[in-house]
Amino acid sequence: METAHGEVASVNQNGVYSFTKPARDAIVLVAGLGVEGDTHAGVHVRHRSRVKADAAQPNLRQVHLIHEELFADVARKGYDVQPGNLGENVTTRGLALLDLPVGTILRFGPPPGSADRAESADRADRPESANRADRPESADRAESADRAGNVLAGVLGAAAAATLNEPTARAAEALRAALAREEAAEQERGPDSRPALVVAGLRNPCQQINNFRPGLLKEVIAPDEHGGLVRKGGIMAVVLRGGVVRPGDAITAELPPSPHARLEPV
Fold this sequence. Notes:
alpha+beta, M1 Pyruvate Kinase, Domain 3, 7-stranded mixed beta barrel, 3-stranded antiparallel sheet, 9 helices, 29% helix, globular
């Protein structure tokens, strides 16, 4: 299996509709829904423009990720952008998000059995009350929900019931394939307890970016040499396995089998 690696630079969440999301000490991913307490979490689309167009569409935009390197690029052109300013839930470092194929699984935290898991092992030996003090109370609910069966039944059911455009249909199929790979891997090696996402597609940058910083939109969406558009506003993903994600967590990207399909706006 082909992999790539990076780390979490920031985690961000907002419980009200707002373009930006404040940075947090930690966020809780909830399988099949999104970031707990975030306004964009849900089985069906939550972004207001998408709700207005068709509220029955599946929410393949549960979690938004942006690479921190974008902020350095636009800073050289005079734009001050900080983590969460563009509305992302997870700001990454050292991982080429835009180059990932659809259906990539992103796992957060060190692999099972690695030396970096020593701290987790220490926590396992501590009293339960001490362990709970280190994590959001809802993390237990997020993890137990993962064990309740097909965690993506809701969003995949929404996809099956809706009329999808071609990119969304391809993303939904990649999501089904990723779920099948995960189920097969669990039978072979047992479950991987790390919080995980499935990459669904690209964010389509919109006018709100210019409202935040006048002129910034042209830096995150621009024509390429072939007449197409390069969208740099990050990627969208669906939660495969719940749990806590914090700044500094390792990210492992598990690419799907070849041939790879490029990301499209969803």
